[in-house]
Amino acid sequence: MAIKAALIFNNNGTPRLTQWYQQLEVKVQMDLLKEIYRLVSVRPDNICNFLEGSALLGGQDTKIIYRHYATLYFCFVVDSSESELGILDLIQVFVESLDRIFTNVCELDLIFRPNEALQVLGEVISGGLVLETNINEIVLATDIKKGSLSSINK
Length: 154
Fold this sequence. Notes:
Blueprint lengths: L2 E8 L4 E6 L5 H16 L8 E3 L9 E8 L2 E8 L4 H19 L4 H6 L1 H11 E2 L2 E2 L4 H12 L8
Antiparallel strand pairs: 1-2, 1-5, 3-4, 4-5, 6-7
């Protein structure tokens, strides 16, 4: 498995979207969320967006790749076989897809419409593997599933 988790936090460390692609107990998930936020929140925006995982995250075999946009941290936890630049690009694709679905995504969209955000993520990643990177295809598939383009199904 390449991608272990996709997580979005606000600037205060409150998780706004979490998707785990490996089986973990809830307490371990909560500890990981705190650890990941602690690691990324202290880093200045002008330095590298890649971190090696701590012992809690799986050591050197695990990396945290993140982007900080406005009030949100988009973090992907991946194994060492993943390309850091590829995951940064995937985060960008995910954010741009959310921007199109929500018309300039913000924290409130994730709070009040989490199912739609998870649906977009589900079009990008399934079971820890990348499914789609074409933003137009992601948005189209999400719109069809929402029913807003039901005429296409006819």
